[in-house]
Design brief:
This protein is an alpha+beta fold. It is 30% helix and 20% strand. It contains nine helices and 14 strands. The strands form four sheets. A six-stranded mixed beta sheet has the order 1-2-9-6-12-3. The chain has a four-stranded antiparallel beta sheet with strand order 5-10-7-8, with no helix packed on it. Strand 13 and strand 14 form a beta hairpin. The N and C termini lie far apart (42 Å).
Amino acid sequence: MQMPLSGGHKFGVASSPIRSRAPNLVMAELETISLSQLLEVDPQAMKELEDAATLQGFFYLDLRGSETSRTLRDVDECVETAGEFYAMPFEEKLGYDIDKLGMHKLNGSLLERLMNDLHAIGISVLRALSLVLRIPVERSLEMSHRHHCSSTSALGVLKYPRLWAESPQLGHGAHTDVGSLTLLFCSEPGLQILDPKTDQWAYIRPKDGHAIVNVGDSLRFLSDHRLRSCLHRVVPPVEGKITDRLSCACFLRPELDAVFMDDTGKSWKSVDWHDGKYKMFRAPTEKQQQDSVLTGKAGFLGSWCPDSIWSA
């Protein structure tokens, strides 16, 4: 499928403004950091990255440079293609049985190129963080994310279908990410963070040509807990309604054998932390609430309540 090479990018465009009948919708204020300036080791950009990653754990990464124009086009094409797949009749989708085809056999040149490019962008951010945190070269953050080493890193296009909210379980419950960095591209609001500045849930507004980047658990642990892994969730932004929403996310995670310590001082291999956290996602609500793995806070789930959508 050929996509137009000019014009705005469909994902990362705040083209659907939040309706005026939602006057109390709280929006998060995030730092905007230029990838081009990070590559140049610009002092101001490096300081902004350090502040964003240590204080809030979320920031916008400006990718509107000539070196990343292909990446933005590829994100658009990837989401367009996935949207066509999601729109297929259910019976036709059954023809793409992953157990029969194998999880790697459908990877074409687009997915491989996009994953490689986003991995390289993530490594650039990790390299900059290693510099501002003055981490010794032999323990630099990028050394736990070498491209030739196996990891659970993934690229996905996620669909949140059109629904009316009737249940507090709707959307994606509060959690911190399991990996190192998540690079998210979306065109519709729906992502909320528990803003450390205000201790309030706040929506993140998508921005044209920018990735929404957040720090995950593994990177917090690898940085000796100097970086913040911020709680977030996906909930309806307008009158309890979720419209069809597609987003593209790259999950950069450490090598399988990377070792770090959690908040209790327990040592983990990256792959074991990954598997343990996903096991908790599937656990009953009572068990999730007793543990701190999902949210970093025992007894806290951060579920969305429709009656408090504006003030949460």
